[in-house]
Amino acid sequence: MISKDRWAEVYRLEFPRVYRALLAVLRDPDRALDALQDAFASGLRKPPAEDDDLAGWLFVVAVRSGRRGFGRSLLRLDHARSHVSKDEIEASLDRMEVGRLLAGLTERQRAMVVAQFYLGLDHREIARHFGVKTGTVSATLAQAKARMRAEVRNAS
Amino acid sequence: MLPELSIERVFQRELDGLPVPDQELWVPARRSRPLGIVVVAVVGAALLLVLAAAGLVRDASGAATQPRGAITTPTSLPSRPTCTPPAGANGRCISLVPNAVRNPAFGYNLTIPGEWRETQMPPGTQPFVPDRQGTSPSLTGPFLLDRHVFTARPAQDWVGLTTVNMAPAWDIDVQVWDRQGRSAQEWSLTFGPCDHTRVTFGSVGCVETTETIRGVTAVATTVSTISGSEMTSYYLERGEQMLILRYWTDPNVAPPPGVTTITLEGIVHSIGLV
């Protein structure tokens, strides 16, 4: 089990990457911030058993926390709201090719696509973190990629 | 187009352009450093705006008359997950800002959520000490130097919940003892609930760890009982004193709304020695 100091260090190092990944999935800066803080607190309370791929752990726990809904965060800092609005983030994502493609996916598909292509997790790691079978990950990603390809075809 | 082979690079390039909040909003709190002055100023200004807007601030330290020499930065503390808008608030929910608890006499600060308050243990109660009846060393009387109990329960709910020596489940009990030359490790083993030779309240497991809280080494123990309750204690040495932060959770005792183990851990980890 990793120490709490190590956990705090991982959080500091990985926050930007995981936060951006959450923005791409949740499309809401405050939800992303709350979810990531909740994930950090969860890790502080019960650190992950293994000291590998902690960014993936943070990401998945935060995604789950984000699904509980905005406003239900256990660790929300009321004075520490994100400096950009949800509309601004959505506008940024819509200007990006990746953002437009992700917008056509379900939140679960988005989470797995971002985990693979942005955080660099392989199917086995995604399956372990999400608590599903590798086959489920493969099927979900295949459907997501097919939908993204269709979106690219339609756009062109 | 989004070629398969370069998709990772496209994700990297585009998503790395998304903005990230200022670091002071998400970096875990550390012992103050020179750079902290800027952080404190920024957060302090934001806090003042919040206070001015909400008009809600309380000092639960019991030391409201103490001169305020410095602004303290509230640490990451839980707020209630739900909220009922107060009358006259135009349907808006107002979340109380965290309270800075200062204990200059014994040199520590603590931050508690806005909904929490300090409460007084009934006269005659003493902190939980397994070997209370032991002969040496005495752990009552002059060796207990200070004690404060914090709760999220309103007064009418809190009355009747205390036992002879323990604060109710889901409260925070902060004690300062004359450490009598013993280290935090020795306190946790000799006097705390992890003393297997003396614990008699049905303990089924004790986990002891050492961790660093805001730069200070603390010994933490958690004792599980058959009933499912857990008592967690943090021992911090401070000169000739021993600072103990303790709480217990009990599945058979309903926590106040919004209070979880994360809340309690958040309070404990806001401790700062000054």
List keywords for this structure.
heterodimer, A: 156 residues, mainly alpha, Arc Repressor Mutant, subunit A, B: 274 residues, alpha+beta, Protein Transport Mog1p, Chain A, 7-stranded antiparallel β-sheet, 3-stranded antiparallel β-sheet, 5 helices, 18% helix, 25% strand, globular
Explain how this protein is built:
The complex is a heterodimer of chains A (156) and B (274). Chain A has one domain: Orthogonal Bundle (Arc Repressor Mutant, subunit A), CATH 1.10.10.10. Chain A has 156 residues and is mainly α. Chain A is globular. In chain A, helix 1 runs antiparallel to helix 2 and helix 1 packs across helix 6 (107-117). Chain A has helices spanning 4-26, 29-45, 54-67, 86-95, 97-103, 107-117, 123-130, 134-155. Chain A has eight helices and no strands. Chain B is α+β, with helices and mostly antiparallel strands and 274 residues long. Chain B has one domain: Mog1/PsbP, alpha/beta/alpha sandwich (Protein Transport Mog1p, Chain A, 3-Layer(aba) Sandwich), CATH 3.40.1000.10. Helices cover 18% and strands 25% of the residues of chain B. In chain B, the strands form two sheets. Chain B has a seven-stranded antiparallel β-sheet. In chain B, strands 1-2-10 form a three-stranded antiparallel β-sheet. In chain B, a hairpin with a 4-residue loop joins strand 1 and strand 2. Chain B is globular. The model of chain B is unreliable at 29-38, 55-82, 130-138 and 199-203 (pLDDT under 50). At the A-B interface, helix 1, helix 2, helix 4, helix 5 and helix 8 of A face helix 1, helix 2 and helix 5 of B.
